[in-house]
Amino acid sequence: MSARSYTDSISDLNSLQSNAATINALRASGKMNQNAIGEMRDWVAKAGVAQSDIDELKVIHIAGTKGKGSTAAMVASILSNYRLAYGKTPRIGLYTSPHLKSVRERIQIDGEPLPKEEWTEYFYDVWDTLDKHGSAKPVYFRFLTILAFHAFRQECVDVVVLECGVGGEHDSTNIISEPVVSGITSLGIDHVHVLGRTIEEIAWHKAGIFKKDCPAFTVEQGEKAMDVLRTRAQAIGVSSFEVIPVTPALSSVKLGLNGDFQRSNASLAIALANEYLKTQGVDENLSVRLPEEFITGLEQVKWPGRCERRQIDNVEWCLDGGHTSESLALTGEWYGSIPESVNRHYLIFNQQSRDSTALLQDLHDSLPNHSEFRKVIFCTNKTYQVSGYSSELTSINNASDAVDALDVQRALARKWHDMTDQEAIVVTSIEEALNVVRDDCGRHASRCLVTGSLHLVGGVMTVLDDKQT
Questions:
Q1: Which residue did the predictor score with more confidence, 134 or 5?
Q2: Spatial distance between the Cα atoms of 361 and 325, rounded to a whole number of angstroms
């Protein structure tokens, strides 16, 4: 067989995406696959990854609706500043989703995406081993999760910060048996077709990552969600269950991530990182002070596309991948809190798979100056006007004919007009949306809010970076 390239691996990986018909059937069923964990264990075995190898990984497992990726990034950043009892900085694996520009972002080691050469080698280790068992392959996220476990073992990481994909109970990451600690970030309504339409149902799924005799943490939640988390923690038999309030010491820390809500995520990250450090002989007394390593980690953390501000020429691009009712309300608050220093404001928005008009309403209601956007643009998540999706942003999760019809974007434009009396612009691609802003703002100091979807934000980042090279 001829040598296969990184590009080949992306093409093969994209072939594992579930198409729109499959996803719609899953949504119509109203529940997740109850056999998911058993099936995932079978795939792991067929891929040649021993369950014992996975169980030997020291895992910090994180679930939640909002902020689980940010929390995971903060935990990894904190730990990267420590030298453990045996004199070396821990080698840290980080597994998150989705990616923004490159799929390699999902599997990071020591703060860097897995290099292309190693990615390709480990990808085909798993791919070729699965081929020996027939032509079938696990779906996209399952394959990536297996690949992550394989890469972390091959790279001899000391600790893995593992973010759930969807839910917790039936999530592909939940094949681990004994995490160092489990943490749940803020809960809200999302993925209702598979997790349920009530906060109690969603909390039940998220608490599925709790494990017997292992500690479990969560941030402050609403009463209904907290009752479910406590009940499940007791039923599962965790060693301890602790609610983490916002740490007062954070008032003097300038977090690397924007948004006041990140202080709750940072507080949980502190607790999770400290729990791992205890297993390594590092016992910090956090009630006395916040150690310098924690402060440095929290100040230096990077997590692109979440309340991120990027200045390019005369335009400040404000990027946030908020895509739930609660997160978009926070997006609006964050955007409104940025000091006024520009002449022109713009909005680029898309949400292709959820209740997009309701989410637009949530954003609108949270924006103090929502009527002051000079132009509002609704686009698809297609990256480029002519060539379509960037190869690493290809998606078949939504039917191509429905995307091409621009029905979602036109509905969003009608909704915006109903709310504001302002005509909005509908375009077919992210590249076109950015061109509308650039052409209109000229040399005026301008600011553009991009939100509604992490896929949209990743596409915008891709096009912006193209224009700078």
A1: 5
A2: 9
